[in-house]
Amino acid sequence: MTPDVPRRQFMALAATTTTGLAAAGLPAGTAHAAEPAGPERADRPLALWYREPAADWLSALPLGNGRLGAMVFGATETERLQLNADTLWAGGPHSYDNHKGLAALPRIRQLVFDGKWPEAETLINSDFLGVPGGQAQYQTVGSLLLSLPTAGTVTGYRRELDLDSAVATTTYTRDGVTFTREAFASAPDRVIVVRLSASKKGALSFGATFESPLHTSLSSPDPLTAALDGTGDATGGVAGAVGFRALVRVLAEGGTTTSAGGTVTVRGADAATVLVAIGTTYVNWENANGDAAGQAAGHLNPAASRPYGQLRSRHVEDHRALFRRTSLDVGSSDAAALPTDERVSRFGSGGDPQLVELHFQYGRYLLIAASRPGTQPATLQGIWNDLTSPPWGSKYTININTEMNYWPAAPANLLECWEPVFALLDELAVAGRSTARTQYGADGWVTHHNTDAWRGTAPVDGAFWGMWPMGGAWMSMAIWEHYRYTRDTGKLRARYPVLKGAAQFFLDALVTDPATGALVTCPSVSPENAHHGGGGGSLCAGPTMDMQLLRDLFGAVASSADALGTDAAFRDQVLAARGRLAPMKVGARGQLQEWQQDWDAGAPEQQHRHVSHLYGLHPSNQISRTRTPELFTAARTTLVQRGDAGTGWSLAWKVNFWARLQEGDRSYKLLADLLTPERTAPNLFDLHPPFQIDGNFGACAGVTEWLLQSQHDELHLLPALPSQLPDGSVRGLLARGGFEVDISWRGGALGEARLTARAGGPARLRTAKEVRVTSGDAPVPTTRPEPGVTAFTANAGATYLVRPA
């Protein structure tokens, strides 16, 4: 990750997300009798569950509907739901462009080519870095607090998050009365819902109010409702422009309900439904003058007209329509009956294969909860952040982390959750066109290693980290990847101008390397890593990752033009430029070089968390066992030299790397390294540390890579199946070419696979052993173009059964 703060502050920042027992509403001395583990856990295998309330934020349970997020603590004295709205950001609309940049660019480039790295860095920091030099941060709304009776000892306590229903439940008994709370974030009704009930009539009493670290005020707009009004912070000299209103309305059954001074009080009720709605003034990246109060009321009032049962059923139906598309079964054991945090502590010792399934499905759950059509994309923390100044601003870091957030979207069958990325790209293309002209004198559009709610596209955070012009190239590859999975020419046609604009920029901005004659980026960096050339630093020309990204970008534009039957002249331009890019090279240590020069051996961080130059191995397909064996071996050598250690998200990328190397056991080891208390929080959030959600998504995608890879117009079945998971099945994975795939395996070998052709066309299957293909019990004519490959023509809508011959 790009440090907006020095590394020595990492752990301090991590500590700020852990607010202790007080945050969970647990005064010292509170007694809780632990619920015994037992076979009853088997009835909900896809649930996180715990014997105690959350002691800190990293133990609380996440809910989300794309727009709103909540972390549920499950306390018995003061329940806390920490709240987020996806459009509550510091600052306001503005341009980051540096108007001194274009004049400084020729000198910067010359300094880089001359190897005068410190001088180049100084000039970039003074004349090329964005204004301001840091971007805005994503901010918390605050918390909803429910004050509950405190007398008596709590027994039979349990809290859980059921991934299949996306409902968090807390139950406990106090003085002979069993209290139950259900909470969920409803996408169809656009509110957060909490249902409180008691086993004894008239036993439910509580208060509901808000607190916030931002500048806010409380009020009671009506007898059932409390309101929190506030504004996001200023940042970098830009005034806070996003106003917000949070409303809580309590609909009690029996008893009395009153509201005064921003607190709703319920006395003697049988049950109550608590609804939370949040509106902001954020309209889009150029406009923060919306109606927060009107938006909040417009969501709250319709929801309040529905009975709780209807709210819950609408929510569950909406969630399951996405969640139940894909299932995974890799076996279970007695360990599955343990609380989730205990399972993470024990996973490294083996014997808990079901935790792999739970973690995989948790990644899918989080993507559904954090990213829906019409919402902002998932940030570094998804939609969950309890701070006003979180680590790295909880922004969009687009030199790996935002892209990793969406790696599961296609293979794990959640294409709709990808939609916010395409909306983001539309906006970045507009903002980035200004940056391209202002700072590079180039056509097209550019963005660097970070962006935010205001769609900053200039380099930020300092030249060492920020002088990387490839963010648009990587992000826009989502357009082509979506087409590869769906064959949807309508969406490709609509999005092609954004993809083309990303390529247009580089046709203008690439320069000729005077030493080699190749086209290269300059200035650039290999994300966040330093080299030892000259005076050191990170600046360079044409790092390997840049060249890989441009080969993909130019190839995607050319292939898109072919698919759409358009833009032949531009297609020829990008292919000509692609042919002049600096090639990948193997260094003296047998490694894939990270830079054009063989600087790897002297790089100051031999085990750096970024392994950017292996982009060509994953997520790209430029390096493969069958097509580029020398580079394939060099990529493996690089991973061995870098070692298995890493931050949470880095381990997740390595899970994918080793899967692409078809070494399932090594890939599984990396997942086991991730599933430890040092890298996975009690609530299964990925830890850098601190919390970053990309590791959750990256690991989820890595599991799909064990089971199905679709590169070079082939579907490779079980390419990296770990020996630790010898028996199992998966349903509903998506593959490039427009296929949906189910697979079962026994004893580490393919049992059968079922392919549904959504688009139709050529199908090539790579398998360990020869297979036969049938459709409707009839054999399908196949060919064997090479050993291990079976080819046939698939008809759109048809299903094919693949079994060992």
From TrEMBL:
Gene3D superfamilies: 1.50.10.10, Golgi alpha-mannosidase II, putative glycoside hydrolase family protein from bacillus halodurans. One of its GO terms (molecular function) is alpha-L-fucosidase activity. Residues 308-707 form the Glycosyl hydrolase family 95 catalytic domain. Keywords: Hydrolase, Signal. The keyword Hydrolase applies. GO terms for biological process: carbohydrate metabolic process. It holds the Pfam family Glyco_hydro_95_cat. Residues 48-284 form the Glycosyl hydrolase family 95 N-terminal domain. Residues 1-33 form the signal peptide. Residues 709-802 form the Alpha fucosidase A-like C-terminal domain. This is Alpha/beta hydrolase. It comes from Streptomyces antimycoticus. The lineage of its organism: Bacteria, Bacillati, Actinomycetota, Actinomycetes, Kitasatosporales.
